Known about the structure:
Blueprint: H1 2-21, H2 35-44, H3 50-65, H4 72-88
Helix pairs in contact: 1-2, 1-3, 3-4
Amino acid sequence: EMTLFLFFLLTWFRDAIRLQAAPETAERIANTDLEKNLRRFVDGYPEADYLRIVDEIQQAIAQLEDPRNLNPTLIFTNLSIKLYQLIKNK
């Protein structure tokens, strides 16, 4: 379930990248039903580092899939802090 949540989050931020780069090409986003919310998000956080956000989420997915990781809560906590900083561009 955690990995699935991260894949949904990854899709959201990939769509945000597409909308930020080319707002007029909304038909290329995966979450077409959430386009209005995505646009508000991108407009609300224009300085967010979406590329690094996607990278951080991909790293968290890889960490969750690693059988040596015994504490997924720590992975999510770490990711949450990083996402906050990257969205607020701090």
